[in-house]
Amino acid sequence: MNLIITCARHLESETRRELIGILEKLGDSEPIVTITNMSGILTAETKLEPIEVVKKIKEMLLDEPWCIRYCLRVIPIQRITETHIESIEDEISDLIQLISNEESYRVSIEKRNSNISSQELISRIAKKIKNKVSLEFPDKIILIEVLGNKTGIAIVKKADILSVEKTKRSMSE
Fold this sequence. Notes:
173 residues; alpha+beta; VC0802-like; 2 domains; 34% helix
């Protein structure tokens, strides 16, 4: 999985079809889109670069706002690991070089079907990074998406995550 997609509950099948169409249009002839056992959550495996995919979907949305009806958020994932504090910490250690010395950061954790400790995870990660923390306007976000026993990790800019609703709202302003 290198994308996590959220949608309204009970619209997973429509969202899956929409996403497969979008990924095929972007050049992936064989994307694998899976409806998870969590309501409103899908995962996708594409051979395209996930952050680029999000960027291109955002461009599609700005050109034709009505072309995306079911996807609510599209989140790029760079690494997948087991949902254990140690393995998440190890994967993040490998990705930390994506944050330059001058950049501020924030850790964002979204947990679904897991009781892993967010506080412990955040404090362990913070010990590894000497950069300044900015909760309001970070240069980079360390994104931890926990889906049961699997966890997706990415270090991204705020613009690398697509919120369809926010994008559409910004167009009308």
